[in-house]
Design a protein that fits this description.
- The protein is α/β, with parallel strands linked by helices.
- Among the domains are: 152 residues; 91 residues, no CATH class.
- Helices cover 51% and strands 15% of the residues.
- It has an eight-stranded mixed sheet with strand order 6-7-8-3-9-10-12-11, with helices on both faces. Strands 2-1-4-5 form a four-stranded antiparallel sheet.
- It binds adenosine-5'-triphosphate.
- The site of adenosine-5'-triphosphate has 17 residues, from strand 1, strand 2 and helix 1.
């Protein structure tokens, strides 16, 4: 796997305003995503998985707010973009697949139209190219401007909090506020110095892009003119040649054919020229059929004109995946993509996601409440609880050596593939995020909780270079608490399964190598 980082989430903090108060949905989480890897984000309902990924997509609900943190993608901080500019940055690079394929599709529109629509809407080639040309400078400017606005907002909130805090004596309040104002002013003044320069750069870049695009359009038009004149001359020459031949001459048919061909080429030229400016319906159709084949929709030509109700749940999810792929994303976010499907279909969709990820070199964020689903999918796993990541590591770290009691509980609650039974459901309910608990949020439900778990939040303890867990059990002074037997049994089973799979794939490889010979 290459180690090119494509997404970096730093200290992301998100809350929702509700009539009952502020719901602290995501609390200072950080993670990276590398090119070509699958990162699974796992946790119970309400742990903040979807909210995190909706923030990456720029589709948080209106009452949601990114209070703090960064979402670095394509050299841009998505957390600081206005909604209006979001789609330009995100553009076609991030695709998302939701839990229920039915609600992602329009029931009254034919499948084909739903797949080609995005291609046709974004089909003005020169407009897209124009935006691409000044994209970087535009966002450098925009990011700085937004950063300054946020600093001011942050200062005002902090002043409000100081004023409200009765534990601070009045005189101290004044001093604190003045110091805060001074330091914010200094930071903003420094940043502001760069603003005019960046604005000029952006405007210059936009101007240059306009000139460049005009030049390119002019070139295309000039080429077209030359091409048209040439084709027209061909038509005239072949007509002349045909007119000079007697109808009953043996070469007449050949000349007539040559004349017809030149006429056809002249006619086609108009379409070829149009295509240099727009994605045509025919092109969009052809690409849709290719993608429908890629995602395993049989008889795509026939299916193209059908409506969603004529598709099974699994096939509908394939259509949703096809739509996400039309824009050629580099990052695919799958939010519980198999939860609404029958168990037998689930594996097919998982296999499909694995296949397209490999073939297209995609990076995938896979959100699920079921650790079992990602056992053979994920390269790395982040376990979320009450708006925080409590453990993260490679798949083998999490499946063979989990450290956080919440990860143990999740592992124990994975339905057994053989008996289809849940071994152990997690006792209790997740905390109310209007009032996030003190200490380790899982303490209330954790049979291994220590006294400190109720008082102080655990930091991340390093288990290995790839593996970290936020549990006091990893502190050097913690009592030696062994994993419950149910977990060690599961681990043994996972290891045996992996060994079996490896042996199977080895046999398959040897066999296919034998076939070749
Ligand atoms: N628009 C909203 N207004 C208020 N609270 C919200 C809103 N959207 C999400 N939340 C809250 O944010 C928290 C995290 O929700 P989120 O949907 O991310 O959880 P999740 O882990 O994805 O669970 P699920 O699998 O149920 O979607 C929850 O407490 C949820 O109630």
């Amino acid at each position: 796997m290459s180690k090119e980082k494509i997404l970096e989430v730093k200290d992301l903090t998100i809350s929702f305003k509700t009539p009952n108060g502020l719901v602290r949905a995501v609390r200072t989480i950080s993670f990276d995503l590398y090119k070509g890897e699958t990162l699974a984000i796992v946790g119970e309902s309400g742990s903040g998985k979807s909210v995190t990924n909706r923030a990456i997509m720029g589709i948080l609900a209106n009452n949601g707010n990114i209070d703090k943190g960064e979402i670095l993608y394509s050299n841009q901080d998505l957390a600081k973009l206005s909604e209006e500019n979001f789609h330009k940055i995100r553009g076609s690079k991030v695709g998302m697949i939701f839990q229920d394929p039915s609600s992602s599709l329009n029931p009254t529109m034919r499948i084909g139209k739903q797949i080609t629509e995005a291609m046709l809407v974004g089909g003005d080639r020169f407009k897209n190219r124009f935006r691409d040309l000044y994209h970087n400078e535009f966002h450098d400017y925009l990011n700085l401007e937004t950063r300054i606005k946020l600093l001011k907002k942050d200062r005002d909130i902090r002043i409000f909090e100081i004023n409200k805090d009765d534990s601070i004596p009045k005189a101290d309040k004044k001093v604190k506020i003045q110091a805060l104002k001074k330091s914010t002013h200094e930071t903003i003044s420094k940043l502001k110095k760069d603003l005019p320069g960046l604005k000029t750069k952006y405007l210059e870049s936009k101007k240059a892009a306009k000139i460049q695009i005009k030049k390119e359009i002019k070139e295309v038009k000039a080429e077209e003119k030359v091409e048209y004149a040439k084709l027209k001359a061909d038509v005239e020459a072949s007509k002349k040649s045909l007119d000079s031949i007697e109808k009953n001459s043996p070469s007449y048919e050949d000349s007539k054919k040559a004349y017809d061909e030149t006429k056809e080429a002249l006619k086609n030229n108009k379409e070829v020229y149009r295509r240099r400016f727009h994605v045509t319906k025919k092109e969009a159709y052809e690409r849709a059929i290719t993608i429908m084949n890629e995602v395993g929709i049989p008889e795509p030509e026939k299916r193209f004109t059908q409506y969603p109700f004529q598709f099974s749940g699994g096939m509908r999810q394939r259509v949703v995946i096809a739509i996400a792929l039309t824009a050629g994303p580099e990052l695919l976010i799958c939010d519980e993509p198999t939860t609404a499907l029958d168990v037998t279909i689930q594996q097919q969709i998982l296999d499909l996601i694995k296949k397209i990820k490999k073939e297209r070199g995609l990076s995938v964020i896979f959100i699920t409440h079921d650790l079992g689903v990602v056992a053979n999918m994920a390269d790395r796993v982040a376990v979320m609880y009450a708006g925080k990541i409590v453990e993260y590591g490679s798949s083998s770290d999490i499946f063979y050596d989990p450290k956080h009691p919440y990860t143990w509980a999740l592992l124990a609650s994975v339905p057994d593939l053989d008996t289809k039974e849940k071994l152990l459901s997690i006792p209790g309910t997740p905390p109310d995020m209007l009032y996030p608990p003190k200490g380790d949020a899982f303490a209330e439900r954790n049979q291994f909780a220590l006294k400190i778990d109720f008082e102080e939040e655990p930091p991340f303890f390093k288990v290995s270079d790839s593996h970290y867990a936020a549990t006091w059990l990893l502190h050097e002074n913690a009592p030696d608490i062994k994993k419950p037997k149910i977990i060690t049994d599961r681990i043994t089973k996972y290891k045996a399964d992996a060994k079996r799979r490896a042996a199977q794939s080895k046999t398959k490889n040897v066999k296919s190598a034998g076939d070749v010979n």
